[in-house]
Amino acid sequence: MFGIFKGLGVTFGQMTKKKVTLQYPDVRINMPERYRGIHQFIPELCIVCNQCARICPTDCISLSGTRNEDKKLRIDTYDINFEICILCDLCVEVCPTEAILMTPRFELASYTRDELYKDMEWLYGNHLGEFGSHEQAMAAQAAREAEHAAAAAANGVEPGGDS
Amino acid sequence: MPDDVTEGQAERTAAEKQAVAAKPAATDAKPAAEAKPAATDAKPVAEAKPAAEAKPAAAKPAKAAPPPDPRVVAATAVAEQIKASLERALGPGVVDETGAFKDVPQLVIASGKWLAAARFLRDEPEHAYTYVELFAGTDYKDKGYIEVALYVQSVANNRFINLKVRTPRDDAKLDSLTGLFPGVNWEEREVYDLLGVVFTGHPDLRRIMMWEGWNGYPLRKDYSPFENIPVKGGNGS
Amino acid sequence: MCALRSEEMILNVGPQHPSTHGVFRLVVTIDGEQIVDADPVVGYLHRGTEKLAEDLQYVQIIPYTDRLDYVASMLNNYALCHTVEYALDLEVPARAEYLRIIVMELQRVASHLLFLGTYLLDLGAMSPFLYAFQEREQIIMLFNEICGARLTYNYMRVGGVQWDAPPGWIEKVRDFTAQMQKKVPMYHQLVTGNEIFLNRVRGIGVISQEDGIAYAMSGINLRSTGFNWDLRKNRPYSIYDQFEWAVPVGKNGDCFDRYFIHLQEIEQSLNIVAQAVERVPDGPIIGKVPKLVRVPAGEYYRGIEGARGELGVYLVSDGKDKPYRLKLRRPSFVNLQILRKLLIGQSMANLIAILGAVDIVLGEVDA
Q: Residue B232 has what pLDDT?
């Protein structure tokens, strides 16, 4: 019976240790910068090159655009079907202008399947967040990055490099 | 199988071998160091031209390539050795074709001798190919046959070879290897399920991924999810 | 033997059974407590990955491989990328190789921890599961930082890896490895000596070496029979030959050996990671690969040592940017075949102990 008590010793030792669980909906897990959550889309940057739609392994992106008077392509519709999107990041990888990016948000539960079909407005809203316009959102992001770099420099870690 | 078919297949291997050597250099990345001499060939002709040149040298597929990959040459020699040994034991006509891809020797066994050849290669201590690593079927629609590949390792001699066998698409039938290697039981069922090769002598030949009553064989190249609508509902086993 | 006449009964274990770790159905015929026959039914999770792959470019197949053995995605990623690299004779930059080794071995640790946790949970021990997941969570968070996903990593690419290690990541791995190396004896203390556990797994589900080879088993199931076969040593790939580590081998081929080798492999994997983090070189993380990978026509097979056995990719290419045929040699699928032989004659209570120790993941069995 000795083995069992040895095992129980480990269990009792655990009692004094810190808890590792989180009370999820109240306390949120802090997702890292690279986290591949649901997308955000910035229509201002899109050049309608269709690369994201082509690389998508599940064909969940559909988009359309028209040519302006100044010969530039403008995006008209941009839809992602999150029913089949596998959040693989390939669309972000191929985007030449970083018009499509991924956010750290991951909660997508909804009551109907139709709600998972997200249009450009919703994806743009993901980018804007609480900010009113694209410029404000970008400015806030730049500020956040500067803060991050300053914090990293204070810790003695060079931003962008490692080891 | 008539002789001219065999020859044609040998030519194909030669052409493929050249493509293997020439292709990486022809693409803009030039990743392979050993294939660099072939870089002068223009991209589109790189595949077509060697095929024509290879015709006189079809008997020795590996040597026909301009920069002979030493691994392929060595592996082909091993395949030839095994072929000679097989023909000594089981008579001529056992091996349709020999060749190699990279460092893996490859033998195409005549479909009638599939079981006998596999048994010989397993039991003979000189070969002792006992450990099956891969059992896979491929549908070559244009060539009209289904090919089953068996990658088998000889633990005692530390050798790794690829045995293949071909069977016509419309009447795909092969001897089952379950008696020799119990480990190919499910693999054969999978090939039966997805490619429609009937393995005679298999103790339990049922569909494994799809349910009984599924219409068609999904991994065949002419399978269409729209035409092959399942005819009846499944009830598992 | 028995004076009383008993009647055989057919019992369905699964498809929805917590101990089958997925949708796996086992039709057992029992005579009292004795198993007379067992018929595994698989295919409930068949997604046709092989068929889908025929219509996809190589880079698009990588996310699909994540979903095969979904508790060891890094290894699946590697199996595909490695086969394509082998076909192209591509050289992978040193830094990418090191990052790959680190994530692959951490993944192996995570996968083995999951096995330990769930196996002991199947056998009725609750707390090891919690401990195992605590450590596994740390590994998953490390992966989350490097590639932005917790389970479906999509991290590797043909010719290298997609993301470089973020600042401070290597140090985090080093800290975790050191901490985890100290934790392994804790598991031995917690479980290995436990008499109840030993009685349930010792001498149960014995696989003989001949059977192991004949049934084409691989990985820990094969090594537990005393057969030293690890593709990292026997057919070296990547840079495994640059590290010092051992292949743990069992003696009896029973469930206890399989459990014990899992723990030993965790130690060895941590060993490799500890050596690798010390000498990660600087440099590019992806080699010179064309944007659209075209594999030269031919047939290629490469097997790697996955978490559950030999994980192989058989690739037939006709020179296009999509594979002509992609066959995945899934270790769980092959290993599971022996189950019927192991179960016949055993008592019903041993069913879960044997099934759990074969260590299958249904995403991989059904592909």
A: 54
Residue-wise over A79-111: b if at least 16 C-beta within 10 A, else e?
bbbbeebbbbbbbbebbeeebbbbbbeeeeeee
Q: What is the CATH number of the domain that holds B99?
A: 3.30.460.80
- As given in the structure block, the two tokens for residue C9 are 């009964």
Residue C21 domain flag? yes
Number of separate domains in chain B: 1
Give SS3 for C329.
strand
Nearest CA in chain A to C153: A88
Q: What is the pLDDT of residues C261-307, one digit of tens each?
A: 999 999 999 999 999 999 999 999 998 888 888 998 989 999 999 99
Residue C27 with chain B: CB contacts under 8 Å: 237
Determine the residue of chain A that is closest to C64 in CA distance: A57
Q: Do C215 and B162 touch (CB under 8 A)?
A: no
Domain region containing B210: 70-228
> Residue B234's pLDDT is what?
44
C226-269 per-position pLDDT tens digit: 999 999 998 888 899 999 999 999 998 899 999 999 999 999 99
Enter the pTM of the model: 0.85
Contact C71, C139 (CB under 8 A): no
B44 has a pLDDT exceeding 90: no
Query: Residue C2 domain-assigned?
Result: no
Is residue B149 in some structural domain?
A: yes
Q: What is the ipTM of this complex?
A: 0.89
Our CA angle for C119, C50, C100, nearest 5°, is 60
pLDDT of residue C17: 80
The answer to whether the beta carbons of residues C101 and C305 sit under 8 Å apart is no
Which of C210, C320, C325, C339 best tests the B interface by mutation, with the highest count of B CBs <10 A? C325
Residue in chain C nearest B224 by alpha carbon: C51
Residue C1 forms part of a structural domain: no
How many domains is chain C built from? 1
Range of the domain at C79: 8-366
